[in-house]
Structures are given as C-alpha cells and as structure tokens.
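Lecture 7 notes: from sequence to structure.

We start with a single chain of 295 residues. Read the sequence below before looking at the structure.
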Amino acid sequence: MLDRRRFLQTCSAAAASSIAAWAARSPVKLAHREGNMLRKSSPYVYELAASIPGLSGVEVQTTRSNLWDKETVLAYKKEANRWGMRTASMGGSFEDGGTITKPGPAEVSLRKTIRAGEILGASVVLVPGFRETCPKMDDESSYGPVVELLKKMGPVAEDAGITLGLELSLDVAEYQKLIGLVAHPAVRPYWDTTGTDHMGHPGEGIKGLQVFGKTICQMHLKNGRKLMEEQHLMEMHPRHPDAGRAQSIDWTKALPIIKASGFEGWFAFETPHASPEACVEDTKKNIAFVMKYLS
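Now the structure, written as tokens:
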C-alpha cells in the first residue's frame, strides 16, 4: 500500500509525463494564400477562409493588399478577429520591381512589412527571390549584400516576434550556405517542395524536407493546377523557362516525411481556383487528403 509521500511522488511523475506528452503534440495549422483565394484583395478573405472547415489562417499579400497603409491593415485585423482566423504570414513583401538583391529598397520594404505583420499577429514574413531576383551563391558580389541585409533585418524581425522566411530558387546546398552565412534564428527557410523542383531542381524539394525539417518556418502546399492527391506531369514554370517539365511531387511520400520531421509551422495552400466557390470545394478536398497523412 502506498504511503502519502509515495502517492504524491507517483502522481507528480504521472502529471509530468502527461504534460511532456501534451507539450510534444503540435496541431496541424492550415492556411491559404490570399492571392489564390480572391482575384482582388479584400478583408473578405477571412470570411471566405472561415467557410472552409479545417482552415485556420490566411497568408495575406502585403503590397497587393495595401497593408503598409494603417487603415487598411486595421481593417484586415478587424475581419480576422471577427471571423476567428489567424494571419499566418505576410506574402508579397516587396513593391513592384523590389527584390532582395537590392538591399536598400528591400530593407525599407521589409521594415514596413514587419510592422504590418506585427499589427496582424503574423508569424512569418515571406522573403522571395526567384531566378534573376535570387542571389547567386557562387558569386560573393551577388550573395554578400543579401547576407548583410538579412543579418541586419533578422534582429528587427525577432523583436517583432516574426521570422523572415526565405523562399528562393536555390538548391538545398545553396540554401544551407546562405542560411549558414546569415546565422540568425529569425532567418529560416520557407519551403516550397513543388516550387523547388519546378524551378529547376528536381528531387531537391523532398530532399529539403529531410535536410531542414523542423527548422523550416513555413511551407507552401501546391500541386500545379491539380488537387494535391493527383500525380501528373507539370507545365513549364513561367519564371524558369529552361527548367523543362517536371513530375509533380508524390505527396503520399512527402507528407509522412514532414510529419516525422517535427515541423511545427503553418502550411499555406498556394493552389489556383476558378472562383471563390471552387476555392471552398477544392480546399476541402485538399485538406482531407493532407490530414490523412498529418493527423
């Protein structure tokens, strides 16, 4: 028979074990990219997102949606709160013609986007760079200024509770080199498995899931013009005309890798739809497929 002290010790150990198990669980957080939900930006995007069971957030389009403007960003915040939806991340960080390879204007844009993201409660500011707007990692004159920019902006983002997510047309080794040179915890990969393959690095999309795992801050989920469950030969990427055609990702293999990796960030669907109504129906199907492997 247990005495009082042994009983309390047993209860305490059981409680600690239960708390540890609870803390180890991470919910699957699914968002959708505003630019793929509505043809014209609007705070209505949160109401549309709320109509899709299983969706809990939105990746907004910063400059397209005029979110550097205080009245506009507050209108988005009001609708997000009204519909109980999170602003997961800030896409479209740069003005037209802006690029990470132009550090001066890029810094100004990133500071404005971080400020808007802080108001909206976003976790990530997406920092894009594709093809001609991506630093060349074999040329220090190209990547050096980008490294210095990110070293400068990492602490700014961190102070706002935000991570700068790099979505670039690099292969895995090049990503590792850039992230290593910046060496700041608030500068991390924003991984697009399909985009990486489609931008000219076949096989690197899934490799990146394995290499970066839980250090990835957020992921895009997409499958060309098809539902997530369909494997097919994808069209040529319009931003990388010499990449050729590529087989789509086998998500039945990729999603278990993600689950096993310990990734805890948001997933954002970046899937095209013919209309808001089609967005609802397509996304329901995509969520059901994804959750078969992540839940």
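The mean pLDDT is 92. Keep this in mind for problem set 3.
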